[in-house]
């Protein structure tokens, strides 16, 4: 089981039994569970601090899409978790995984945190833009999964951005900002990851 210590995960689910199961599963990995929220209004109170999210599509007849839009704007990875087959996900949100409620917690975890993400071999599931600011939540989450320490992870992101400023003239054409920064982060973690833990 991977270590999610300190990662803020928003759970938006109106079935309290299911919400409790998800909260226990992620809480046992050390995640800070936000919610569970059963309404769009409750969920909106947590969008600024969430670093990942599980979203029930249908909240007592209301759609969760405004929450997804806000998370997407911030570059926060999320998955849809639905029991309804007839709900159409808007085109702008179809990049996110859409799991059935029959899926187990491991499947949700894998959709939210793909194996390549924790190894920094690839990028998280949300690919929004080349704006560095919008990529910060994903960089911080990837760093936390890599180092497992909140302070060290933030230092890793800082070092990554410092090195990126120094190497901006050597950036290869055609490489997205996200891939470029993840490559720099891998290099910094290899060369000085241990020192960042102290």
TrEMBL record:
Gene3D superfamilies in the record: 1.20.140.160, 3.40.50.2300
Family matches, as InterPro entries: CheY-like_superfamily (IPR011006)
Record protein name field: Response regulator
Domain of life of the source: Bacteria
Record SUPFAM superfamilies: CheY-like
